[in-house]
Design goal:
Blueprint lengths: L1 E7 L3 H9 L6 E4 L7 E3 L7 E4 L13 E2 L11 H11 L14 E4 L5 H11 L4 E4 L3 E6 L4 E5 L3 E9 L2 H12 L8 E14 L12 E2 L3 E4 L2 E2 L6 E6 L9 H9 L6 H8 L2 H12 L7 E16 L6 E3 L1 H13 L7 E2 L6 E3 L9 H6 L9 E3 L14 H14 L2
Parallel strand pairs: 1-2, 1-10, 2-7, 10-20
Antiparallel strand pairs: 3-4, 5-6, 6-13, 8-9, 9-10, 11-16, 11-18, 11-19, 12-13, 14-15, 15-16, 16-17
Helix pairs in contact: 1-3, 1-10, 6-7
Bound molecules: flavin-adenine dinucleotide.
The site of flavin-adenine dinucleotide (FAD) has 40 residues, from helix 1, strand 4, helix 4 and helix 10.
């Protein structure tokens, strides 16, 4: 059977693509290896950098959606943003907040597996999900053939959403020339320091707002959107400067049930912070930890082997220093451990866009489109995944 569209990948970018495709298209989703495995940033296994099976990292993400519209990959207008948001969170009116620095933290993050099931129901079996790993693809005049570990499939068009690490590997296997970059960019999360409740009086602190679907948290952009800062009530041992980032560097960004894992860690400060992150409850404290999320261009070298990312320490520290110089709080007790950071797990820019042009991928009329963050040279400081989904949906719907 020749499909209309093959989508490689089954994470959030693939989901956005399938949402955008017209209802009557016969779509095959190659989900990745049936028995998925996590890859990690380093040996501590504190933060995963890829998941090779159905759902991708979308099985683990926290679901945070930034409402600022600075990095708006597909030039989506606010109507499109609201429409996609409402598909998942129909009871939250984000329209008045769109473009501001709020972060929406849902009770239930968008999970690709559930969302694909819903789409299959809506589209009366036009969508086939197949847990197979694509090894390479080839293009002929009439169609595109994708070879998997078990068989091969053909379609008129190919959408590549294999993730920031999976997409370059698939491209390099499919062409004689190298398409992947040697480096990759990411966000890092670092500790800026502490501010007291009194010092904050000079800032108009927007309150957290609860909706039926989640919590809206305030955030603060540093100079010219170079970083986004959040405040977390500092309690228990976390009242001590730097204790929090030292603990978080050990635990990383836990996957699965964050609260259960942290409860086992017996760190009341960390548990209290995680509870606030998820629920927004008990926001008032005498002092707050200030964390910043910022992009680091070419922050890692790409390498083969079990741990595919090697940190470019100098580049990362330079980015941290720059952020400290423009953090938005006047009376801040500065961290003494600026070198500590947690990977943001927002990997992007892992393929060379010039090389893509040469092989006619991603041009307006090309039957092969890449829709994940591997092609994004910059993502700004915001959480980008929902916006990547939105851009993928727009690209897919505009192409038909
Ligand atoms: C703990 C955690 C918390 C996070 N929180 C947030 C957050 O709050 N907000 C935010 O914006 N982002 C967050 N992220 C980042 C977010 O999860 C990722 O940016 C997003 O999931 C990437 O989606 P993707 O579809 O581009 O790629 P991936 O999720 O990496 O999916 C790639 C897919 O491609 C498949 N694949 C790969 N190679 C092949 C192949 N050759 N053949 C077939 N299939 C293949 C894989 O099986 C997978 O299904 C978080 C990540 C983690 C781990």
């Amino acid at each position: 059977m020749v499909y209309d569209d093959i989508v490689v990948g089954s994470g959030l970018a693939a989901l956005g693509t399938v949402i955008g495709l017209p209802k009557n298209r016969r779509v095959l989703i190659l989900e990745g290896k049936p028995k998925g495995t996590l890859s990690f940033y380093n040996k501590t296994h504190g933060a995963p950098c890829a998941y090779s099976g159905p759902g991708g990292l979308g099985n683990y993400w926290h679901g945070v959606i930034a409402l600022g519209l600075q990095s708006n990959f597909g030039n989506a207008d606010s109507k499109d943003f609201i429409c996609l948001f409402k598909r998942f969170y129909p009871h939250t009116d984000i329209e008045p907040l769109l473009g501001r620095s709020n972060l929406f933290v849902p009770w239930k993050p968008i999970r690709p597996a559930t969302a694909f099931k819903r789409l299959q129901k809506e589209r009366q079996n036009q969508i086939t999900r197949c847990p197979q790993h694509a090894i390479r693809f080839e293009v002929s005049d009439a169609s595109i053939t994708v070879h998997t570990t078990e068989t091969r499939f053909s379609a008129k068009r190919l959408w590549i959403a294999a993730g920031a690490l999976g997409t370059p590997a698939l491209l390099d296997n499919s062409f004689e020339q190298k398409i992947s970059r040697d480096k990759i960019s990411d966000h890092i999360i670092c500790y800026v320091g502490q501010v007291t409740q009194d010092a904050l009086a000079t800032h108009t602190l927007p309150a957290t707002k609860h909706t039926c679907d989640g919590v809206l948290f305030p955030a603060f952009y540093a100079d010219n959107y170079s970083a986004i800062c959040t405040l977390k009530p500092a309690r228990f041992a976390f009242r001590q400067l730097d204790y929090g980032i030292e603990a978080r560097s050990i635990f990383g960004l836990p996957t699965g049930s964050v609260i259960t894992k942290l409860a086992r860690s017996c760190s009341p400060g960390l548990l209290s912070e995680a509870l606030y992150n998820k629920t927004g409850l008990f926001p008032n404290a005498e002092r707050y930890s200030v964390y910043a999320q910022l992009p680091v261009h070419d922050g890692y070298k790409l390498r083969t082997g079990k741990y595919p990312l090697e940190p470019e320490s100098e580049t990362i520290y330079r980015a941290i220093e720059k952020m400290h110089a423009c953090q938005p709080f006047e009376q801040l007790l500065r961290t003494r451990r600026p070198e500590l950071f947690i990977p943001g797990i927002h990997l992007h820019h892992s393929v060379t866009n010039d090389a893509l042009q040469r092989i006619n991928i991603n041009s307006e009329k090309s039957p092969i489109q890449i829709v994940d963050a591997s092609i994004q040279e910059t993502i700004g400081c915001d959480h980008h995944s929902f916006k990547i989904m939105l851009a993928a949906a727009q690209k897919a719907s505009a192409s038909c």
